[in-house]
Amino acid sequence: MAKEEDLSYKEAILKASASISRYPLIPIKGVPLMSYIANNWDSISAFCPDPSDLLIATYPKAGTTWTQEIVDLLIHNGDAEACKRAPTPVRSPFLEICAPPPIPSGLELLKNMDPPRMIKTHLPFHLVPSGFWENKCKTIYVARNAKDNLVSYYYFDCMNLTQPEPGPWEGYIQKFMRGELSWGSWYDHVKGYWEEREKKNILYLFYEDMKENPRREVERIMRYLDLSVSDEVISRIVELTTFKKMKENPMTNYSCVPPPVFDQSISPFMRKGEVGDWRNHFTPEQSKIFDEDYKKQMKDVNIPFRTLI
């Protein structure tokens, strides 16, 4: 079954690859989104989830795939084979993603799935379809420190041939600070979910905490989902979701997306997965400018980010 779904997903992307390009960004309520998403915005915003659906929300490159795999393994009691039934984007559809036919949109994949569904989004809080909050859907949000998130997003934009051309590193830092990337401002994104986390019962996780003590964070996710698995299963899930294991797993490493879309010869989808890699990229001057801007943009909140662990 997994092989059939994997093949059909790959085939759909390959068939559409000739018409795939780096799509321009179009603002929706002040947030730049790829044109394919913006042009389908009415359908996306009208999506109404089942109350049993789970939303996994992140700014791009903040630990989304990692969290999706942890949740799927928890739901399946640590059964690795069950979680190889299909690649991540088929098991956990990307709500707002749209592409040329015959690539299925996130909405099309969701329409063909029975609840409860595990749904991925990069939408900032104010763009999430209101049905998620009206139906009191559980939501897991993962936040990653700005500097590492920026570095990871830069490499992703280099290899993802549907995103706007990233340009040179120096200019990309400026675009990140101004919120001129797909899905908008990192600052607004992390603040939006942080400010609503208690009212909307959002489990707000930090990438750095997950790296520092993955077992503790897997247990937090388990409790939030009202699940109960044995200590042995928790240990297995921690092992199966190490960066090394997931990078080798064809169901999680996005090898299901062929090179005309994700050119992993430029940069692998799963590149390093480290905390503190930003030190290999920021010059002292760039770091100083970034830190000064960060203080201004985050002065109204106290979110306990760590750039090192």
From TrEMBL:
What name does UniProt use for this protein? Sulfotransferase
Domain Sulfotransferase: from-to ranges: 51-301
Sorted alphabetically, the Gene Ontology cellular component annotations on this record are: cytoplasm
Recorded superkingdom:
Eukaryota
* Gene Ontology BP, a term: catecholamine metabolic process
Q: Does the keyword Lipoprotein apply?
A: no
Location within or outside the cell: Cytoplasm
Q: InterPro entries under this entry? A: P-loop_NTPase, Sulfotransferase_dom
Q: What is its EC number?
A: 2.8.2.-
| Organism per entry | Anabas testudineus
Query: Any idea which UniProt keywords this protein has?
Result: Catecholamine metabolism, Cytoplasm, Transferase
Q: Which GO terms describe its molecular function?
A: sulfotransferase activity
Top-tier EC class: transferase
Pfam families with a match to the protein in the record? Sulfotransfer_1
